[in-house]
Design brief:
- It is a single chain.
- The chain is of the alpha/beta class and 287 residues long.
- It folds into 2 domains: 4-124, HUPs (Rossmann fold, 3-Layer(aba) Sandwich); 139-286, Rossmann fold (3-Layer(aba) Sandwich), CATH 3.40.50.620.
- 39% of the residues lie in helices and 24% in strands.
- The chain contains 10 helices and 11 strands.
- It has helices at residues 13-27, 45-60, 75-85, 109-116, 154-164, 184-189, 192-210, 227-237, 261-268, 279-286; strands at 4-8, 32-39, 65-72, 90-94, 121-124, 139-143, 167-175, 217-224, 242-249, 252-256, 273-276.
- Strands 1, 2, 3, 4, 5, 6, 7, 8, 9, 10 and 11 form an 11-stranded mixed beta sheet that branches.
- Helix 4 links the parallel strand 4 (90-94) and strand 5.
- It is elongated and about 65 Å long.
- The relative contact order is 0.14.
């Protein structure tokens, strides 16, 4: 099925890095890209429209279907409006990062979009390589923690793995040594080998539910701490091309599955990260 992907731009070279990833994702489904830029009341709409048309023309020359939209107003609200107007199934955008952890392109726009748009969001941290390799099958890493909320990323991850003919790698990192709030007696009672074995049993069950003829699935359970550093190390070892994680907190990106693990992973990632907000969170918020 063709995918419609919205790519918010702000006129910077950094934001345009998202076009590289978005083009590959759209190409996997013969889909289309919607390039959008949200401007303020004093910005020249005609000039911004020409900028978007230039970017679109470059992509058109490579056979990509592209449309452009200029909006005025609040960035998150207008990007969400574009996504719904065009029936988008994915947002792809770069992050700045020069103002420190948690600082995003458009400030808090990515956070707002995750909470309100209702569709997955691919973010490219500053260190991420936007190109997806051509010479080998792609690989998508999905960190899990044994919770249903953490598994919310599996659906989009499976979907894109099928479209990209990629392999899924399910990973659970068992925190070791134990957290500092565990006293000595409790720590002595923990058997790291048993904990890894329990994790492997869990991952094997999840893998059986994901494996198809077109999407091979592997899994790894391992000890590590800090967990984000371990995930980043595994991603490097396994030559991962995309990390897919579920958001966990009502306040959006700042509180993600596995506590601060996804935030830490984003800070260390050198590949794009697909973020998914579990529908269960919206049901809880509405209750």
């Amino acid at each position: 099925m063709a995918a419609t992907i919205v790519v918010p731009l702000d006129g910077s070279v950094l934001s345009e890095r998202a076009l590289i990833t978005a083009e590959r994702l759209a190409g996997a489904t013969a889909g289309r890209l919607i390039l959008t830029r949200v401007i303020g009341k004093d910005d020249d709409e005609a000039e911004v429209a020409r900028y978007l048309q230039y970017a679109a023309g470059t992509l058109n020359n490579r056979g990509v279907t592209v449309e452009t939209v200029v909006k005025r107003g609040d960035a998150a609200e207008q990007i969400e409006a574009v996504a719904h107007e065009y029936g988008a199934g994915l947002l792809v955008m770069s992050t700045h990062g020069r103002s420190g952890p948690g600082r995003w392109l458009y400030g808090s726009v990515a956070d707002e979009l995750l909470r309100s748009a209702g569709i997955p969001l691919v973010v490219l941290p500053p260190a991420a390589q936007p190109e997806l390799v051509e010479e080998r099958p792609l690989r998508i890493l999905v960190p899990l923690d044994g919770s249903a909320l953490g598994e919310a990323a599996l659906g989009p991850a499976r979907d894109w793995a099928d479209r990209l003919r990629a392999e899924l790698l399910l990973v659970e990192v068992v925190a070791w040594p134990p957290f500092s709030y565990i006293d000595g007696a409790e720590a002595l009672a923990l058997d790291p080998d048993e904990m890894v074995a329990e994790s492997e049993t869990y991952l094997a069950g999840v893998a059986r539910g994901c494996n198809t003829d077109t999407t091979p699935v592997r899994y790894r359970a391992l000890l590590g701490r800090p967990i984000p550093t371990t995930i980043a190390r595994v991603a490097s070892e396994e030559q991962v091309d995309l990390i897919a994680m579920a958001t966990h907190g009502r306040s959006g990106v700042a509180r993600l599955v596995l506590g601060s693990v996804a935030t830490g992973t984003l800070q260390r990632a050198d590949v794009p990260v697909l973020l998914v907000r579990p529908p269960a969170l919206d049901a809880r918020a509405a209750a």
